[in-house]
Design a protein that fits this description.
This protein is an all-alpha fold. It has two domains: 1-39; 43-154. It is 88% helix and 0% strand. The chain has five helices and no strands. Helix 4 runs antiparallel to helix 5 (119-154). It starts with a helix and ends with a helix. 10% of the residues are buried.
């Protein structure tokens, strides 16, 4: 890195720290943060793990794609296609996590005492099925984007 790149990186970190300090003392953010942290429980743990995995994967994938396609290859078109693939894969991770969460909630509901097969069971089953279909649609889109990317590389 050159001197100016180090300088702007340092400025970016300082601004990031200032924003974090501001958010730490900003009361509405504090209330929101404590409500979210208190809302984490075993009942929605699967979705939180998939959400954190999806966010971290999204950032890492796009950083890597930027380094490869923009910095090394100087190809904006391949960066856009790669970004679409990464975003679609993140959507797959998030919807698959939500599907697993729906399966877990349906299983807990069925293991409770005194459950009955009425509208609540149907709602939970429909939510699980619709999330599974959504995950499948995202997978098909990801496959198509990968197929398009492979076609561009051979041409």
């Amino acid at each position: 890195m050159t001197g100016w790149q180090w300088f702007w990186t340092l400025i970016g970190y300082i601004v990031f720290i200032i924003v974090l300090i501001f958010l730490y003392f900003y009361e509405p953010f504090e209330v929101l943060f404590t409500q979210v942290i208190n809302g984490i429980s075993f009942s929605n743990f699967i979705f939180w793990v998939s959400a954190i995995t999806g966010i971290v994967g999204f950032v890492v994938y796009h950083w890597h794609a930027y380094r490869v396609h923009i910095v090394q290859q100087a190809s904006v078109e391949s960066m856009v296609l790669s970004s679409l693939r990464g975003s679609t894969f993140t959507a797959i991770v998030l919807s698959a996590g939500a599907t697993l969460q729906a399966v877990q909630m349906l299983t807990v509901y069925l293991l409770e005492r005194g459950y009955s097969l009425h509208s609540e069971f149907g709602e939970r089953l429909a939510a699980m099925a619709s999330l599974a279909i959504l995950t499948g649609i995202f997978y098909i889109i990801y496959w198509l984007l990968s197929y398009i990317g492979a076609g561009q590389q051979t041409a």
